[in-house]
Design goal:
about 120 residues; about 50% helix; mainly alpha
């Protein structure tokens, strides 16, 4: 009986280890396939957007997940989704466009619309 439990424990451990290893594997596909399909819509959209919107200076930043994101150098509207970030914006002299419901620190912040 003890031998059988030991074998089951060993098999279960091996199965769990296999699951962890396969879960951490790099599953990136070839970058040529997605970029080819996404390049066609992008080539038609810039002329439309350039005629509808004036040229805005953009800055490329890398977010916490490693993605490169383009943001305007001088954003017109900023929204923070927690009280600490709202306080940071006020400290920098920036008034956010809205607040979260639990924000109750500054009077000018409490008068903002809630999201």
């Amino acid at each position: 009986m003890y031998k059988r439990k030991k074998i089951y424990a060993l098999l279960l451990s091996a199965l769990l280890l296999l699951g962890v290893i396969s879960g951490c594997a790099n599953n990136q596909t070839s970058p040529s396939t997605p970029s080819e399909s996404s390049s066609a819509p992008e080539s038609s959209s810039p002329p439309e957007s350039s005629s509808a919107e004036p040229d805005v200076a953009m800055k490329t930043v890398t977010d916490d997940l490693g993605r490169e994101v383009e943001i305007p150098v001088k954003p017109e509207r900023i929204l923070a989704l927690n009280s600490a970030r709202i306080e940071e914006l006020f400290s920098l002299g920036v008034t956010p466009v809205a607040k979260v419901d639990e924000y109750k620190i500054r009077e000018e912040g409490m008068n903002l619309p809630s999201v």
